[in-house]
What does this fold into?
Amino acid sequence: MYNDLKESVWKANLELVRYGLVVLTFGNASGADRARGVVAIKPSGLDYATMKAADMVVVDMAGRVVEGTLRPSSDTPTHLELYRAFSGVGGIVHVHSLYATMFAQAGRAIPCLGTTHADYFNGAVPVTRSLTAGEVAKDYETATGRVIVECFRRFKPLETPAVLAAGHGPFAWGATVEEAVQHSLILERIARMAWGTLALNGRSRPLPDYLLRRHFRRKHGPDAYYGQTKEKRR
Amino acid sequence: MYNDLKESVWKANLELVRYGLVVLTFGNASGADRARGVVAIKPSGLDYATMKAADMVVVDMAGRVVEGTLRPSSDTPTHLELYRAFSGVGGIVHVHSLYATMFAQAGRAIPCLGTTHADYFNGAVPVTRSLTAGEVAKDYETATGRVIVECFRRFKPLETPAVLAAGHGPFAWGATVEEAVQHSLILERIARMAWGTLALNGRSRPLPDYLLRRHFRRKHGPDAYYGQTKEKRR
Amino acid sequence: MYNDLKESVWKANLELVRYGLVVLTFGNASGADRARGVVAIKPSGLDYATMKAADMVVVDMAGRVVEGTLRPSSDTPTHLELYRAFSGVGGIVHVHSLYATMFAQAGRAIPCLGTTHADYFNGAVPVTRSLTAGEVAKDYETATGRVIVECFRRFKPLETPAVLAAGHGPFAWGATVEEAVQHSLILERIARMAWGTLALNGRSRPLPDYLLRRHFRRKHGPDAYYGQTKEKRR
Amino acid sequence: MYNDLKESVWKANLELVRYGLVVLTFGNASGADRARGVVAIKPSGLDYATMKAADMVVVDMAGRVVEGTLRPSSDTPTHLELYRAFSGVGGIVHVHSLYATMFAQAGRAIPCLGTTHADYFNGAVPVTRSLTAGEVAKDYETATGRVIVECFRRFKPLETPAVLAAGHGPFAWGATVEEAVQHSLILERIARMAWGTLALNGRSRPLPDYLLRRHFRRKHGPDAYYGQTKEKRR
It folds into this structure.
């Protein structure tokens, strides 16, 4: 019944492996169908090599399985918390990619040190606060989503389409699951470049605001002039 | 006579190459058949590209060759020492993978800095003490096993399924040789992330105990809820 | 009408992907036909996997499209500024390759620390000054070209065939677009080696001038003795 | 006339590319036929992808071409200087591999920090002194060989089968050209691990002598017990 959604989510999960963002079963991508109020997500702990589109699990916004025989990813409650809070988001990716995870483990936001970053993120990629013992004990995965939402009181989710869960790793999102995968890949790339820039000079300064905004708006919003007009895009 | 065991050990050795954990002949995997009291292991210094399952050498727990015409890995006495001391272990892998070896060479345990680590290791991955001149002179490889066992007086082998031999490199293990390979791969990954985290912030703190335990128990023990129930696993 | 030029520029863009210098759509190569006063360049934001030679856009030296139906790369004004100022340059490449971008983000020139560098660059690879708010607001991409030209008052473009745009990334060039691609690859390699050398020893000294010149002249100018005579080259 | 020699040298050069030790034309391997007093070496600046065994150039120990129509590698005088001084050496490799070159550029020997290193090198991999302006001006490539030989007054070439030419990069050798390639690969690996170990702990100590010697002698000399007896080796 949700074949197209399951197909796109399955493909997105395989892309994560192809881009080197995932080893073994460390990661998951989900996609939402807002009109029907459902989310398709990777099953928990399944081998990417043999996983099929039909294995994707469809849940409603409260987390009840509506299609599929396997258990959904153990991170499903985190994804749902984000879908409920971030209305424009249509796809979410969680990975433990190397450099983004280093920043998450160091409890440090990724500063916007260059235009590669500014092309996709309108400022630093923030890091959440740590969870308390109480939050971990009760509904851990939902609490992970909640501290992300709390952190985003100061940000617009579609202008800063990723976050670092402290001591854990990155979550990235987008209007679609394909965009979420792309943001996840770019996040890893800018994390690696920020890591190396800080190693060269620990006091490197963020881009000035006027340059950050210029780059972000080249690609986003009404004044964007990067890429092709819609009908010519491939 | 031990064809299945030899086949699984041979495959495990090839996996090490495929995952980039081994170059040239730097590594070895072994698997035990506890019921028959034997261990199959890679022959010493053989080329992975032309090695066949039939080349695996089968030894008893005292190290006597019971099947095979080649010389077993020079690290065999270390493997046997671990099998004798760690009763639940069914497979062992030794490699000189890059980042785990850096920690071993620096004589430093890998602290548990994030949930990727906590998903597989119930705390830091320890480093052994250095061997004395006397230990090196006499039964060097057995002594390597002995300092690992000594180090594990404070740990449960299946909750901390790896160790760093000081100045040498990692040993990883598991209930099966396939699990040992997987732990070896994950160890390298978390070593690399810990290395980069410490470069970003040399005073990064380990995960709080409540979060470490939560993650470890998501995947291990009676309360595990990660992955599929046995009959649905692939 | 410009089929050969478009073909060579298309191939050069694909080489950037093959060498790992580009992910997604982060990069562009262009080639000039000086006799006809035109430049062929990659279209903006197009997918490398499906892009064809016929998609390349041909513009004149003032930036007017003379062939092609797609929008040229948003960096076209930067390329044109360089072609107008650097008369011997026949090809230009812009990428966000990892290590060269780290130096650009740190606002630091790449010092000539070894003979690999000296074989291709007659001294340090310079970094531009930052753009002012006024320059960014008005003709940003042209201004990027202008600060590069300003920076090269002190250098000969064909003896130092690359630059780092501060807070942005590298531009490399050459007599042909093929040479520009090669310089872009070598730049990334020497950036990575310089990065690692500085990590080992932050006070590493540049090569002495006599060794720099010797290496550069082994490969360039009238006394070159590296490689084959023209008729034997392949 | 020297077909076997040329074939083995050609294959060795291709191995350098396959192992990622060479990009573009940055490297060369040579092999000696001591009985006939000749050395086969890669031609200068030739593309690895199209190079054939027949392209290898054969020179005598004084550097005169005895077979071949192409110009030999510009580093030929360095190779010959080493063959003349190191009687047991049958193959030499020069590359600009990343981590070994970082140590060469930092002017720093690679300390023996672990058993991976000790398995192949009987102590630190030394770095030469820098060349003087006079040495660079006159017979630069021969002088490069001469400072290596000078540096090896304190070492046995076959027990320390590599060196770092200061500000330049590594040379590795062995009894055969195949062994020289292998040492070049191992050198890069141990350089990378030493680099990372020093980043973790800048005061990491070399292995104690008793452990270094034990590992080196496991693989080399009359008491070696690593690998298979000759007739069983593959």
Summary: Residues 177-200 of chain A form the longest helix (24 residues). The first strand of chain A starts at residue 27 and ends at 33. The radius of gyration of chain A is 17 Å.
